[in-house]
Structures are given as C-alpha cells and as structure tokens.
Automatic annotation (TrEMBL):
Residues 99-429 form the Solute-binding protein family domain. The lineage of its organism: Bacteria, Bacillati, Actinomycetota, Actinomycetes, Pseudonocardiales. InterPro entries: SBP_5, SBP_5_dom. Residues 1-22 form the signal peptide. One of its GO terms (biological process) is peptide transport. This is ABC-type transport system substrate-binding protein. SUPFAM superfamilies: Periplasmic binding protein-like II. It comes from Saccharomonospora amisosensis. Residues 443-462 are annotated as: Disordered. PROSITE patterns: PROKAR_LIPOPROTEIN. The keyword Disulfide bond does not apply.
Length: 588
C-alpha cells in the first residue's frame, strides 16, 4: 500500500488496517495453536455392580430354624448364605443341590437309612469344611430345643454316623420317613456356634459367623435397617453375577418412589390396600407379584392353664371370636387377604388345598352358643364379667413382641374378649423368649379337678401361663411333617414323664397332645397311611378341639423394577432370593 505521495505506507499502519478488516468480516481468525502438555492417564474407579432391595424391616434374630426369627429378612439371608442338600424347583419339587452334594439317597429300608455325600471342596467362609458335624449339630438342636421350626422329622433320627473324613453322613431313622428330603435345610456352621455364648438360643442373634452360600455379609446395621452382602470369594461353586446386594428398610411410599427412580431394583414386603395400589400404579416401571410366605398367622387357645384346659371354655372362647374381623385387621386389605386359611394342615397356597373349616364357630361368632358353653363350664355373668367360684375368667394373650401382623390381631382379639366380659392381660415378650421359654414351659400331666380335654393343667415354677397366643405357624412342602410338628405329642408321649415328675415340656406351641389322634399322626408321618386318608379323619377332630384357629397365610408383594434381570417370584414357599446368584443389573 502506498500513500498519496507514492511512498510506501508505514508497516504499523498496515497491521492496524488488517486487524480492522478482519474484525469487520465474517471469517473467523485462525485457531490458536498451543504446545501440547503431557498428561498422566488415570483409570476410572470401578464401581461394584450392586442390586438394591427394599424390604419392610431388618430385625435381629436370623436363625431360620427358630420360630421367633421367622421373617422376610431371615428367609432372604438363609437363601443367600446357608447351604442345603435339596432345593425346590419352580414347581416345588425338592431336587438335590449339586453345589453342595454329590448324592443323597435312601440306602436301607430296615432300618430306614439315608446316606449323604458332601462335595469335598464344600467349606464355610472361614475355611472349615462343611461336614457331618454340621448335620449332627442341627439334628440335635431340632430334636431337643424348644421353639424350633418343623421338628417332627428330626425326632425320628436315631443316629448319625460319619465316613470319608466327615464328608459322608449316614442318617438312621427309628421309622420310615418319606419326607426326609426336607431335613437339613439351611445347615449352620457347628464349629462356630456349638460353644458360642448363649448356645442355640443365642445362635444368629445379630449376624452370621460363617457362610456356606454364594454371598457373605459385609455389614449388618439393625439401627439403620440395612444389610450389605458381597460375593463370597471362597464359594466353590458358580460365583454370583453381581458384586453386592443391599437390603434396606423402607416403607411402601419409599419403595414405590425408589422403584420409579431406579434407585432400588426390586422390593419385597407385606403391603396393605394402599401399598397394592401404589405398586400397581408403577406401570412399566415395575412388575408386581404375590409371594406367599411359608407360614400362617393363627390363634392358639392353649390347654396349658386351668381355664382353657376345659374343652367347653375353649369352645366358648372360640364362639366369641369374630374371625373375619381378626383377618381384616391382620391383612389390612393386602395380598394376605386372598389367602384365608380354612384348613388345619394345608396352607392356602398348597397344591390340593381345600377349606375344611366347619359352619358356625370359629368361622363365625355365636354369642349365644358361647354363653351356653361358659355356663355349662360353671361360669356366671356378674356385672358384665364372667365369674366362677368368685374368680374372674382371666386370660393372658401373647404376641411375639410388636411384630406385625400378630400384634394388631392380638389387640383386636383382646378387644373382642373384653367386650364379651372376659378379663384380658396382653403381653408382648421378645419373639425368642415367647417361643423358647413361655410357650415351652413344662405343664402338669396329672388330672385337674375340672375336665381338661387334653389331660394338662397349669405350668410349673410360677411361670406366666400364656392362654392365647397369636403367632406364626410354619408350613412345609411335606404336609405330614407340618401335621406332626404342629399337633404331635412328641417322643415318649405314651410313657410316664421323666423320673415321675408329673410334668412334661409341650411338644408344640399349642401345648396340644391328644393320645387318640397320635397314632393317626404317626401313621401319616411314616407313610403307613396315605395323608389324604389321615386328614379326612383328623381335620374335623382338630377343629372340634378348638385349639388352633388359622387365620391367613402371610404374603408379600414382590415388585420388580426395570433395571434388574433374573429376579422371579421363586418356587413355592421359597421366594425370589433362591435365584440371586443369577441376578444381573441392567440399564434403565
């Protein structure tokens, strides 16, 4: 560029004009090129794959063999942590678990003998082998400890012999036992528990000392309501697909919200009518199923004390109860309401179930019939209260702590009895105390002054007599075992009490023993008589005894979110946690 006088323009002027022209144009300036700076590559932190599950509660007491510990969390942990010789298929058929066993079969009919062979590599998480000692420990506890789940089959065991370094277990029975495959479910680590403080009654009170399943416990926080499990790296069989499972306490609204957001992968909890509606409104965010638990809620009118030892008094009390209201209070319109229990032995979810409950009490209340029965038993109603020989008819009603639905049902039952003129004392002992102590208190076998019906009087040593208990009652895939465990007299029922003491420990929570029915119960347990034939005669007799009033089978709602695969309702009476080794986490 030149000025008007022909001389070249000043270089600075040229640069300024170039900048101004560039600023006025649409063409962007050339990119600024910087000198590369060396950077250190940091690999991303790997986040464990985990599945989060909402449940109704995380309560202490995790022994699946204790009646006081029956809960959703206990059933879940036993599936994840404990080994069993047999597992249920989808249709409920018991099949050998080849992760633990190489074989288990009947090897002799006379005497009836079952031989188990445990995989050589099967071991507890602390390195101790799973062996014959674990079978012996569980069998002895189930035969001798009070408040255990389905002990009838174990009571038939006469000996357990070891072989092959403890990996062979030879179990001999005093009688044939067709239901033998139900035994030794959820084996416990005997080496860690047999000498532990508190013995059997303290076993698994807060956690598990060792594991023999695909998962192990990282933390148990009862205060926060959370259990964190991780893959058991010492598990010898197929490893779990996910690294971690988190079980945490939540309410219905919290579960529904967590499923909708994808924070939780599924939920398993008892629900009322509002909860069922909440989960149904999740639409594509969750699929809902009903999962029946392996136990019922029932009322026991125990012939253990002087009042209810009288047949007519028990019948009168049964006639006072409004069973429909008890069921409504317990189920709250949830899925359990569709599983009303109308049979003494079979659960509503069982194959072949049919109600056997007779018309009239306890199906429906009959106040006039109750008044007649109590009058025949020697009671009169004075100032609205039933009295005999100057003593008020007073009953103790118990439930396992504040656990639901038992506490709600117990309160409604107490209200009904009080309104009918009966004095009621309600007690809520800790669940383990209720089953292992209060319902197991020895009772007199001598004949009292008044008719007893079952030949029993009141507990000894000044213990509190529990007259009525609102409790869970287990059911098994083998109904004959359920029958014998629930209503059987137990070993030595036809002999004198030990050392002529005149007292005997009840063989079941109801303190029930009928010597006329016991041979039929034994025949059903051993297979000497078809169960159907035995029940046809036993069911009416058990209803007439007015000892057990089943209400409903407990059931949970299983809501499966869209971010998890492999979760199913599971086999009958087992639930979804049996398939946890195959669960996988997927994108939302």
């Amino acid at each position: 560029m030149r000025a008007k006088n022909g001389k070249a323009a000043h270089p600075l002027l040229v640069l300024v004009l170039a900048v101004l022209l560039a600023a006025c144009s649409n063409t962007p300036p050339p990119p600024v090129v910087s000198t590369p700076i060396a950077q250190t590559s940091v690999p991303p932190v790997e986040t464990p794959s985990q599945i989060v599950v909402g449940i109704d509660d995380v309560v202490g007491g995790y022994n699946p063999h204790n009646l006081g510990d029956l809960s959703t969390i206990t059933q879940a942990l036993s599936q994840l942590l404990l080994p069993s010789p047999f597992r249920s298929d989808d249709d409920g058929t018991l099949t050998l678990d080849e992760n633990l066993m190489t074989s288990a079969e009947v090897t002799s009919e006379e005497p009836f003998t079952v031989t188990y062979r445990i995989r050589p590599e099967a071991s507890w998480s602390d390195g101790a082998p799973i062996a014959v000692e674990d079978f012996v420990y569980l069998a002895e506890a189930m035969k001798n400890q009070p408040g255990v789940v389905d002990p009838a089959g174990y009571r038939l065991i006469s000996s357990i012999e070891p072989g092959e370094g403890g990996k062979l277990v030879e179990v001999t029975f005093s009688e044939p036992y067709p239901g033998w495959k139900t035994l030794f479910d959820n084996l416990l680590p005997s080496h860690a528990l047999k000498d532990a403080p508190g013995g059997w009654q303290g076993a698994l009170a807060d956690s598990f000392p060792a594991y023999g399943g695909p998962f192990s416990i990282k933390t148990v926080d009862n205060e926060r309501g959370e259990v964190i499990l991780e893959r058991n790296e010492r598990y010898w069989a197929k490893p779990a697909a996910v690294d971690r499972i988190v079980l945490h306490r939540s309410d219905q609204q919290g579960m529904a919200a967590a499923l909708r957001s994808g924070t939780d992968q599924f939920a398993l909890a008892p629900t009322d009518a509002d909860g069922v509606k909440l989960f149904s409104e999740l639409g594509e965010d969750a699929q809902s199923h009903t999962v029946a638990r392996p136990y019922l809620a029932e009322v026991l009118l125990r012939p253990a004390g002087p009042a209810l030892a009288d047949d007519k008094v028990r019948a009168g009390i049964a006639a006072l109860l409004d069973r429909e209201r008890l069921i409504a209070e317990g189920t709250q319109g949830g899925p359990s309401a569709r599983l009303r229990a109308g049979s003494q032995v079979l659960a509503p979810s069982a194959e072949g179930y049919a109600p056997t409950i007779p018309p009239g009490p306890p199906r429906r209340p009959a106040p006039r019939q109750a008044e007649r029965l109590l009058t025949e038993a020697g009671y009169t109603r004075e100032a609205g209260t039933w009295v005999k020989d100057g003593q008020t008819l007073s009953l103790v009603v118990a439930s396992p702590g504040q656990r639901e639905p038992y506490a709600r049902v117990a309160r409604e039952l107490s209200r009904q009895l009080i309104a009918a003129g009966i004095e009621v004392t309600t007690v809520t002992p800790q669940p383990r105390e209720l089953f292992s102590t209060m319902l197991a208190t020895p009772v007199s076998t001598t004949e009292p002054d008044q008719p007893t019906g079952q030949g029993q009087s009141q507990p000894q040593n000044g213990e509190v007599t529990v007259d009525i208990a609102v409790v869970p009652r287990p059911v098994s895939v083998d109904p004959a075992s359920t029958l014998a465990s629930t209503f059987g007299c137990g070993p030595g029922w036809d002999s004198e009490p030990p050392e002529g003491s005149g007292v005997r420990t009840p063989a079941n929570s109801a303190a029930f023993c009928d010597e006329e029915l016991q041979p039929m119960i034994d025949a059903a347990l051993s297979g000497a008589e078809p169960l159907r034939d035995s029940l046809a005669e036993l069911e009416p007799r058990l209803w007439q005894s007015n000892v057990a009033i089943p209400l409903f089978q407990l059931a949970d709602t299983l809501a499966i979110g869209s971010t998890v695969s492999g979760v199913t309702p599971g086999p009958p009476l087992v639930g979804p946690f049996s398939s946890a080794v195959n669960w996988t986490r997927g994108p939302r």
